[in-house]
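TA notes. Do not distribute before section.
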Amino acid sequence: MMFWGMYSLQDALSVTMEQIIYFHDYLMMVMIIIMCIVGYFLVFVLFSKTYSSSIVADHLVESVWTILPIVVLIFLVYPSIYLLYLIDESSVEFLCTLKVIGHQWYWSYKMDGLLNLEIDSYMDADSAVRLMDVDTRVVVPSQEHIRALITSSDVLHSWALPSLGVKMDAIPGRLNQFVFMVMLNSVVHGQCSEICGVNHSFMPIVLEAVSLSYLLC
């Protein structure tokens, strides 16, 4: 069954993903306007009987199509740089640290600072959600900043959660980090996004976000 939006971006569950969707919609609007303008002039040139080749060599026209792209790029630079610095922001105070280790072909998790959590998370082959559920979910507090430290024990992996706007490579011998926050109590699904071997498609990621009071009770 087909649903409207099923081939679009996932619903945002973090501030970062919200800003990514806003920027995507803004960029698409600018692209559609440019395509309409260029398409109109292309049709005009192809089918107009009053078209004169001297228009192309006109200094005013050349100035307009040189300055106009510069103006468009200026309007795209600010939201792009803002989003880039928002994603790279690492000075936020976080409640706890989630350590993530990629293996062939499962994920290991350990949480410090809040819960004594240390689990291995394998794909649940019997789940109704095909290839997207695990036997042991990682439970994290919602509406709280969490620092994730990611590495790999063997080959390249990538810890990706599209609804959070998260995609971080797990590299052997290297530690990557970022800070994320799940805005709502929800179950967040993701997958490894780096081809890591024959069972690359069978190492899903599932986070379950619940309220902090529920975790501590």
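Switch to the second chain here.
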Amino acid sequence: MTVTRRAAFAATLGFALAVSAGAQAADPIKIAFIDPLSGPFATTGESGLRSFEFAAETLVNQKGGVLDGRMFEIVPLDNQISPKESLIQLKRAISDGINYVVQGNSSGVANALTDAIEKHNKRNPDQRVLFLNYSAVDPALTNEKCNFWHFRFDANADIKMDALTDAIAENQDIKKVYIIGQDYSFGKAVADAAVKMLGEKRPDIEIVGNELHPIGKVKDFTPYATKIKASGAQAVITGNWGADMVGLGKAIIEAGVDAPIYTYYGAHDGITATFGELGEGIIRSVREGSLNPPTPEFKALNDGFKAKYPDNDINQPRIFNTVAMLAMAIEKAGTTDPVKVAYALEGMEYDTIMGGKVWMRPSDHQAIQDVHISVHTNKDIVVDADNSGYGLKDEKTVTMAGKDSPTSCEMERPDA
């Protein structure tokens, strides 16, 4: 081989190696989305998946990614709302080298995942995983079951119930309350918190019903609605979500119960459209993020989302907070190492596109943020839900809700 040919070959080889190294450096950062994509709660899971994909694209990838060009890639894994199936999907994600897991539907699933991830990380220090919980709000997850690897981006059930019961306590016309929810850890946590907080704030209020029903299995909620009407309840509290929220809410309203229904998940994903005029002034939701009036930034983002997904809305702003804060933590850490990223997340403050701030409390990894009580209405609605003309209008705001709330969390922290 002549000197000229050797030089050309070397140059070509060097270019190829540089391209290969660049491609390797730009490998996407994969995030496993473990939530229901089939079964009775598929609509809720699919809505969350679209939000994660859109958040990753608009907040990270279109801005050049993180760490000089690494993009976020959301990997959907269907858990069928089953803790057992969720653990199977977690093993699949880990075997694919994924270091970040997001999940939100069902605190039962979240409890299974956080236990499994903590055990895995102890046994496999070179393949650790962070669990970014965007919607499972069982208080235990940031209290007695807390661990370093779990971060919650939604207000927990107690923080939300504190806001709900404040609103109920202020209404002196309410003397009787009926509590009903799904029979699993979250539903039980909602009921326990409601009884405790109403007792503290309004001991004159009578709890005229407190029951749980099978999750995802009730086809006709009429018998429950009949009991609620017979009880004389002047307000209803429920943590129901998905199809169970639709079924229960419709049955209560159609039974002629003249009482506000205070909910955790009483809007979007077809729920608002289903209630329509029936829900006017009746359905109230506790949530993060102010929808009406919206900030200009959120209005533009929501318009872009609906242009891509005409039948969906941005109904979980905390998903966008999760993606943005993860990207910020990776940049701050200068690496995707889960331990360093976790330490970067602790204490992080983030100004949201919906207005307000999110602070990741270091002591228990519970996100602290503004919480709103909103009413289902078609009056003064700029951002509606389900293309229905109806939406959520804020009635009450609690600034940085839960900031001073106690926690029993005692977590072991690894060396940074």
